[in-house]
Structure formats: structure tokens, C-alpha cells
Predict the 3D structure of the following.
Amino acid sequence: MTVTTNNPTSEAAPVELVTFTIDGTEVSVPKGTLIIRAAEQAGIQIPRFCDHPLLAPAGACRQCLVEVSMPDREGNVRPMPKPQASCTMTVAPGMIVKTQHTSAVADKAQQGVMELLLMNHPLDCPVCDKGGECPLQNQAMSNGRADSRFTDVKRTFPKPIALSTQILLDRERCVLCQRCTRFSEEIAGDAFIALQDRGAHQQIGRFDEGVLGFAGEPVGPVDRPVGEATNDTSGRPFSSYYSGNTVQICPVGALTGAGYRFRSRPFDLVSTESIAEHDSCGSAIRIDHRRGQVLRRLSGEDPVVNEEWITDKDRFAFTWQSAADRITTPLVRENGELRPASWVEALEIAAAGLTQARQAGGVGVLPGGRLTAEDAFAWSRFARTALGTNDVDQRSRVHSAEEAEFLAHVVAGSGVGVTFGDLEQAPAVLLVGLEAEEEAGITFLRLRKGALGGGAGGRTGGTKVFAVAPYATRGLTRMNGTLLPAAPGTEAEWLTSLTTTLRGGLSPADAPTSDIDTSALAQPGAVILVGERLAGSPGAYAAALGLAEATGARLAWIPRRAGERGGVEAGLLPGLLPGGRPVADPAARAEIAQAWGAEVPETPGRDTAGILAALADGTLGGAIVGGVELADLPDPAAARAALDAAGFVVSLEVRASEVTERADVVLPVAPPVERAGSYWNWEGRVRSFGAALESSALPDHRVLHVLAQHFDVDLQAASPTEAHLSIAMTQRNAWTGDRLTVEAGAPAEPPTIGPGQAVLATWRLQLDAGRGQDGEQFLAGTAKRPVVRMSAATAAGFGAADGDRVAVSTQRGAIEAPAVITDDMVDGVVWLPLNSAGCRVHDTLGAAAGDLVTVTVAERTEGNAR
Amino acid sequence: MTLTPVLTDTWDKDRSWRLATYERAGGYAGLKKALKTEPADLVQAVKDSGLRGRGGAGFPTGMKWGFLPPPDGGPRYLVVNADESEPGTCKDIPLMLASPQHLIEGVAITSYAIGCDHAFIYVRGEVLHVYRRLLNAVEEAYKAGYLGKNILGSGYNLDVTVHAGAGAYICGEETALLDSLEGLRGQPRLKPPFPAVAGLYARPTVVNNVESIASVPAIVAKGADWFSSMGTEKSQGHGLFSLSGHVTRPGQYEAPLGITLRELLDLAGGVRQGHELKFWTPGGSSTPIFTAEHLDVPLDYESVGAAGSMLGTRALQIFDETVCVVRAVSRWTDFYAHESCGKCTPCREGTYWLKQVLHRIEAGEGQDSDLDLLLDLCDNILGRAFCALGDGATSPITSSVQLFREEYQAHIDGHGCPFDPSASALFAYTPKTRTPGALAGAGAGGH
């Protein structure tokens, strides 16, 4: 596929070089380079623990000491009296550095520090997870003494303590390099762990009354959640979505993951580079597996995407792929029950059923949003050529026609647009319908890096972040962001008002009043990030486009699911063909027909809601469904009824689901770990990965390829390579014809909020009840507990106080959770997590963001009684 | 050489700590004069006086003030380091107790000179009585119009905050002090940036010792020449010499720099009657020890340095021949192990190890290799630690092994200490025996 990489728009400024000498070799490096980095460039490895290229220098471990001589004012090179920490000192012209290779002083200093580090270390390498991949172990061999002179008593600690359910700390092994605390503070902004006590008793810890000597219960048993979670994230142990990174950067075995602890030896593991499947960021990961079983996942290194960080979900949530409910053979329904069948039999029955359904009104195609690009193109082509329909929609979530037009107009075929690097450098970023930390975790880290960054790229300060949202989340606060308060459904008003004011006009009197300085959004390089949730807010996508066109800001769409951007490129939308080509455009159809060697149906099809409705009333004869969770749809009950009513259903699934329960034929497909593929991340960057595990499981494109043969169609997707070539056929020329235009959806009547009612705001949390996190109890223990957020005034209207259990209900059902009074929240709005344990908003309430709900106090907490 | 009471002048007066007492002795003449002087001229006067930092390092005070960048309209701060915690050092605490207005006047003049309108005094947390006295003194100064708005009608405003630390020696290190003052964990910061550029709340900051600041009023009132007429060529002015230990009249002796211990001992009535000097510290426990050989070393920065030690805080601890040097050094090492902040490996781990080796030797469980081990460990800590705390921890060990190696060896060969600890006490004293359990496990040296 031909995707252009993003060329830096600005000319790279000439780099000022500094020439110095290290171990007798003259080296030139960019000004400001630390000695330890410069040494790396010269091929000289200086041992280190606290140093990390993405963290600010600390100079704490003193392992990287070198001898330095500097020219004085007269130019005489004079040795500095003490060895210097090469991780904190930048190179200077004429400097002479002698590392352990050429300086006896540096060598002895390093050996001395190493002896001191090992002195209180338990040397329990044989039972340590880190043994075999441990910088302490390795550098003790390369830069340590052969024997220790320490014969006295070691400092000991009880071990380990649980910082959270998933992160365990062995304080004896810790060398106090502070990488973990610096990461938590500098990168994630989750300073829930810190140094405590001092001297040889100094230790890393969370707020732990037992360790800190506060009155209270002692530390609980290990390997178990410590303490009950409180109402929200505050005060909970190490409640960070990025905590797993501390395990990875720990240079010793002090921080370990509960799921991996004592499970494996690094030298038994096979590592495969891959791409994370849980969000649309396309984070590089490394999968470590042994004899066909994944033991752990680590962050990969990709400076342009995720740097060296991944979310805890990407790190720990992998057991879903090998869950007990994996479907391993094709299944066909016989006398109402699914039974195993051979591929030959199952494909024949599926093909016959689909053929019949096509004749009985047509087949709806619901591929789901988690496909690889290869799969997405195969699904798109299968729908158009084998089934002859445009009734195809990947969106198993709230969606709208306005959104489909927006995707066709702005996103499809646009190549690499806004990048992670652009976010870091942008003067301002506006988030609409997107809670970056929850819905695209690595994007949050980049935004925060930009927001906290200084005047790089000629900027006077960090990126100014604005968010149109009902309240200022902790994520927004950690980016020093500004809230543009908006009730769900009213996002378009803000965007329209911004368009007016940034153009210099006066905003209408009824626009959201604002004395917030948003002028940075009009600066060159400003970015607007829109999330998929705007589909539930009529007019918002159109308004975002209008704002971008008015201000010149760049626009990017960040969906939640890994496959949605690729699906847009593949045309998994009812009015869209690959490459942004409108179905309704004859020239577009002709180009695709030529690429595919088959005619493409003329009429734009039904969207997800339309397909489900048509299945329910029998207009459509059947459906073929990919990775769709019915509970993800805005009205799961209606979706279930639709599939129940459907004449014939084929399901391509990894694991048993509500769709497979209702399917006539189930064709098992491979999870990402057992196949090769590519995700098209939200930047538009193609993120290819290979199969980590050997498997006989087939990817979607291969299954569809074989199924298509029953329709006498060659899908050209038998192998990953062929699927790739097949994609390339549609990409040879960019679409130059007209794109779909975006028509703003009819603004919904502002709901009349009656007494005891509120407008529902809701989105998914990063860690929730999603099936991708199944089977990982330690990760689940760090998920946020569901709460109902509302402003103080709103709560007063319900007679509710902070901490009271309140019931949020519709005619269909009710959800109970503790109320949390939230500062600066829009009045008349209540927020719930969309899909957390005990809080399944779509399923229980049948409601979505912007709908009216009723709120009552279910139970008062002690002390809140009035 | 005779005493030159400046800071100690009124210590014998009734209620010497009251503002009225200070004013009767001519107090606040310096501030009145300063407020009619250009700030730059004040900085120059202090430069001309030759005043050097009295906190131990001896950096020229006026030069330090001159490092501040030009005013940019934002705040700049004066922070007084009153976290006096070094074993043996006891000059700032008596000064603040006996005559706190010296410091407060100095704070007012210095703040005016450097363009600061909010100064902080960071007092060691354990000395509650000093903290209270300072608070009262600051209150008195506010009421008298020496602090607050429009000081003495000059239009100059200054607020002074007295802050009590939480009891950590490391917070005497200026950047750790700043972190602690900001409410963070007190650990030294990476330099650069230096406090003059980005100190308290990342603003330009001057950090000075109590005695340095307290010396400023007299310099302003009596002139730089008056000050520099005292002392030696490069170590000018007066200073507090704190004599403690086996000396007949321990206490504060304010004298020109360059005085010798022999002269001071004469003033103090000599070493404990019937005993002779064995060893002494010129500037607190962090300075290499001296012996009777060094009685005539002039106590100024250069001469003490040339003799192999440091003038430090002029905390002269006198030990007579009854004292076991191993025991004394072991106690100091306990202090450093207890006070190491834990940030860097050499100091954190090294002091923990040194302490155990010294305890072993003192208990008669030492090995022949232990002395070389001690020296090598000190070599691996000195100059390798993040700040000067680690360096200070090695000074008494290295110097005492050099000077008294045979005494250490006697502990090892004789499987015990040849000294009677009660002989060095001034009162009836039965030494506690160390229990071996004190070394074990997580509780080792616990505090």
C-alpha cells in the first residue's frame, strides 16, 4: 500500500556540533548532548541505572562516573578534581572524557559504586523475574569486582509489597534509581509512588500507613489487592494507567508484574515485535512467549509513535486471545444447537445460506471495528463483489450519517496527517468528543509531553490543550488543559462559537459564554482532535470541519478501536469505497471495479442501525458479522432481537459471543497474536506485525477468500502478501474526484430537563468490562470503580450528597453507583462510565450520551443524612 | 590576639534577645543607613569587606549576591540557612537564641540589597526554643517597623517567614533546603541550575548562613574597612569559634579569623585540668581532625586548608587523651549513616557499611584487613557522592586512621577497646554495652 510518510514541514535547523574527546577518540555531537549519550554514539557503553533517555537526569546512582578534563579560560585542559556523573553533564568543546576503558580512576569509581549497590542487594537472582535480563546483573559482571568485601549484616525488608493489584515491589532488590518515581511524575503525571524514609532505609512506596508509621491497619498480605478502592481514583494505590512501564524500566527486579511474577525465565522466552490491538494508537509492543503461550507483553521502541511507553491495557490485557471460550473449529447450527463441523461443510452451509439470504432481500455486513487492514479490505470486497451489497458498516457503536460523510470527506485516503510528533509541537490542541487518557492512552502521554514541554520549535510555552467536555477530567488537569464546558449534544455550539470568535467576529449572544482565551487555536500548527463520540452529537462533525476550515487548524479523527481507521480506508461504510471514493460516484465505482475485476453495486447501503432494523423486519435476508459485541451497540436489546429475527447469520469470531449464540454458522478466526497483519493507526500510519505464535487459526481475510470462492469470486486475499497486493490495487491512484460532503445532522431539540432528570454524559474508561480485558484479574483490580459525577448544584437538585449511592434510570433499567460531586461540571448533566463492571449503560439503560435519565438517591452514606 | 565581640556583644545583657536591648546597643543603625544607600553600593560594600560564607564553604558573600541575574520584575528570594545540625557546630543556634535581631537586621539589609521582598529563615526543626525566639523577634521587628510595609518610611517592603525544618541534616545542603522549604522531600538538587538562577520556586535566590547575614549590619554601619581590618589577608573579619569538649570554659569565642587554637585555649582556660590535648576538629565533624601538632595553625580558610583540613564552621571540639578515637569516629559515622538522605549510592550504602565496620572494630571484632577496607571505602565515597554529605562522612575516618592507625590496630589485635569510656566523661558514667542485635536486619541503626 502506498502511504506517504509525514515529511517535516519546517526545514530542520542546522545542528550546532560540539567536538570533544572520549577515550582518545575525537567525536562531534549536537550541543547539549549528555556525555553518556555521546559515549553511546561513539560506541562506548558506560554503566548506568538511574539514567534513562526519556527521563530528566537525576545523577542518583553514581554508576556512570567518568573522568573529565575541561579547558579553562586560557585554554589549558585541566582535570576536574572529582569523577563526574556522565548522565548529568553535557559535553563542552575541548572536553576530554576518560571512561572506565582508559581511566583507572573511573574504573575504580564504578567498581566501588557497584560493590556498594550489591552490598544490600539480596542476590536472589535465581528466583528473580529479572534474572537473565537484569542491568544490575549484567553490569555487575562487566563493571563490578569479582568478590565483595561486605561481610556485615544486610538491610532487609519484608517482601514484596503490593503497590497495586498488578505492580509488586521488592524493596530489598531496589537500587533507588528513581526511574519509576520519575516516570510516574514526569511522563504519566501519576505521582502515586515516591521515595520514603532516608539513608539505607530509603524506599519506594505509595501512601502506605504501615510503612509510613501512620496509625491504621498494617499492610495486607501480598499478591492480593490492598484495601478497598475509594469512590474515584484519588487515594488509591498506584492508580495509573501507565504503571506497567515502571516494571519495564526498573533496572533491577524490584518492580514486578503480578501476572508474570515467577512464571518464566527471560532466556526461555521468544520475543516477537508486534502492534497493540486495544486502541487506535498503533503502539509498538513486544510479545514474549514460550511454547505457544504468551507470558507477557512489553513496550516496543518507536520514537515516532509510542516512544517507549504503552498503556497497562496494551501491556497486561492479552489473555483474551487464549480464553477458554476460544472457538477452535467451525460450528454449524443443527436442531437449534451449534455443533462442530469441518471447514468444508461449514463453508458450504454458509455460502448456501448467504446466497439464499441475498435472494431474500440481501445480506447485511457488520464486520466490526477491530479488523486489520488486510481483513478490512477483504470484508469490503466480499460485501461488494460476493454479496453485491453496500449494506456494510464497521461501526458497532453510536454512529450517524453525518459521521460517515465526515469520514469520507476528511479521513479516508488522506494518508498520514497529524502525527504524534505534531501533537507534541502544536501550539494548541482542541479535543472534542475525545477523552485521550481513557480512549487513546498513548496519545494522552504525547499531549502531556507537549503541554509540559518548553519552548521547543520556537514556541514560547507548551501546547495549550482545550477540551470540549462536560467536566475537567484528571487527564485534562494533568495536561494543564482548559475546559470548554459543554453538555453532551451541545458540542457543535462551542465549535460554531469558536469559529466565529477565532475569525474575529462577535459570537452570538446565545453562544456558550466564554472569557477563556482560545486564540492559540488560530495559530499555525494548531490541531483539532475529534473522537468517535461526536457521532452522537448532531452537527458536531460538521462544526469541527467548519472550525478547521476557518482557522486552518489541522484535523484528525481518533477512533477507539484499532481497526476503524483501516476500515474507513477500506470502505467499510455504506456510502464509501476504498480510498475515499463515494459509492454514488460512477467514476469511483469504475476505478474500484477495475481494481477488483468485478462490478460494484450502485446504491449506497444501510448503516449499522439500518441493517439491524432491516434484519428485524425481514427486509434483509441475513447477515454476516465479524467481531461485534452486541452490548457495544447503542441499543443492545434491539440488536439481539434483530439477529434473532434474521433469516441467516454467519459469524466470524475468535471467541464465543452473543453473535455466535445467534449464528447459523460460526467460522473461527485468528486473534492478532496468531496471525500477521497491519493496523492503520489514527495518524494514518500503517503498523504491520507478524504472527507471534504458530497457529492453524485463519485470519478473516483468508476465511473470506475461501468463502468467496463459493460465489465464484476471487478475493485475492488468500495470504497476507496477496491481501497486501490486493489493497495496493485500490491505492495505485489517489481519488481525485469529488468527495462526499458533510451535511450537519438536524440539531436535536434541546431536551427539557424535568425535576429529577439530567442529561447523560458517558464514555468508556480505558479499563472497564470490555471483553479484551477478560482473564486478567490483576489488571481488573486497577480499573476505576463506577461513579456518578455531577455538579454540586445538580446534586442538590436531586437531594444527593457526595458519596450517596444514587440510581440513574430510564424506563428500561437502573444503575446504582456512588455520587461524586465534581467541580466545574456542567449543571444538569450526570456522567457514568459507559461499560464498566456493574455499569453497562447501553445495556441496562438503553441510553446513550445526550439522552435524558432520571436520578434518585438510593442510599445515603453515613454522615450525609439530612 | 583578643576577642572582638560584635555578634556576641550584648549576650551578657539582661534579656539580650529583646529588640530594645539590641537597639540600646546601636542596633538597626545599619538598616537605617542601608535604606539611604543604593542597593548596588551595599553589594559592593560587602564585596569590599571580604566577608566569606560562615556556613563552612567560605564562598565570598558579596560575590554570591552578585551572581543574581538582573531583575526581571519577578520575585527573588533570600533564604537564610539556619539548619545548623553538624556534630560540634553550635554557633548559629546560640546567636539566634541570644541576639536574634542581628540576623533580622541582616536579613532586612540583604533583602534590600538584592531586591527581595520576601525572605525566609529555615531553622532546624529540633530547636524549638530557637524557633519560638525567632518568631517573637520577627514579630517585634514588624511592630517596630523594621519589617513589613514601607520600612522606616523608605517605601521598601519586606516580609520574613520563619520556617522550621522537620529534622534532617541534609536540609542544611542549600538545594535540599530549598526543596524542603517548598514542601518537597529534602534531597539535594541537580546543579546547574544554581540557586542564584533558579532557586526557591525556580526564582533567583540567595542562600546564606545565619552568621554571614548577621555580620552584614555591622559592615554597613561601621564600614567595609572596619571589617576587613580584622582577620588575615584572605580571611577577613570576625567569626564565632565554638569550643566544646574537654576544655575548661567551653563556649562561643568571637575573634578575628586567623586566631590559633593555642590562643583560644588560653582564653578558655585550657584543656580539662590534668589532661592533655589528643585531637580536635577545626570545623565540625566533617573536617579532618587535627592533633596537638596543629595548635599554632592560624584558623583561617587558607591556613587550615594548607594543613590538610577545612575551617568549616569553626566548631572546635577538643578531645583529651582519655578519648578513644575509634569510639569518637564511630559515633560520628553513626550520625552520617542516620542522616544520609539516601539519594545517591555511595553515601547511602557507604555510610551504612562504614558504620558496621567501625562498630566491629570498636567491639574487638575487627580484622586486619578492616583498616585498608575503611580507607578504600572512604576513597570510593569521597568525591563520588551527589553532595558534600558523603565527603564529610569520610573525613573523620580517613584522617583518624592516618593519625591514629596504631590505636585502631590495637582494637583489632587486643580484641577490644583499650580505653575506659567513663574516664572521658565529666560525670559518673557507665557506658551502655552495644547489643549485637542492633546490627541485625531492617532495624539496624533504626531511628
